[in-house]
Amino acid sequence: MEGKIGNLRKEILGSGFPAEIEVSQILRNDGWFVINQAPYFDSQVNEHQFIDVFALKKGVCLVIECKKTFKAHPWVFFTQSKNDMWIASASLISLLGKGYPQNCHWLDPLTRVGTIFISPFDKKDDDKRKNQFLISMKQIQSIMTHFFAAQSIPTYPIVVYDGEIYEFTNLDIDLKPVNSLQYIHVQMKNGVVWPFLVDVVVLRHFNEFIQTLDKEQPAQ
């Protein structure tokens, strides 16, 4: 029996579930209304899917995916300044929403934005298909499409990673560890290019991230 329980425990610890539980506890302690594995309808595959964490507080909605890679591979991003014209335009679209809910909350010009995701250890096509960040982007895209059709309150997509995140800003590939960044995800919606910003946060930094998010919201 102990061997069976030990194997079960190992499988759970190697998954994203402990991160999901920790994220949920942090949010509840901060006064957020939290639903775990909240269902939504994915129109792209015509079936119901689940959000790891759905949270609501003071008219702001968070949709959160929690990830952990089996091989503990770091996530690496090429980042650019928000002063870049494309970054600024995407941020403005996300802020104003163009008829959709606001999904950008961080307009600090010093915040760098990831425009390219790199997975240096995924050499095979099968590795790339299983890449947890790319999977999370597909999930976030489906979730945001659903929420944009269903409501108009500010909705912030977040990916929490139980691992390491690095960024670099030039061809010298000077890698620097970071606790969080924003990533521009671009999709086509009704024939129109639609960028939106996704917060990517290291699990150990999530509590501090939520405190910062609280401070950015207007008093109600």
How is this structure best summarized?
By secondary structure, the chain is an alpha/beta fold. 33% of the residues lie in helices and 35% in strands.
Core attributes:
single chain, 220 residues, alpha/beta, ten-stranded mixed beta sheet, 6 helices
Describe this structure in words.
The protein is an alpha/beta fold and 220 residues long. The protein has one domain (2-216). The protein is 33% helix and 35% strand. The chain contains 6 helices and 10 strands. The chain has helices at residues 2-13, 17-29, 85-96, 125-129, 132-150, 206-216, and strands spanning 33-42, 47-57, 60-67, 75-80, 113-118, 155-161, 165-168, 176-178, 180-189, 192-202. The protein has a 10-stranded mixed sheet, with helices on both faces. Strand 9 (180-189) and strand 10 form a beta hairpin.
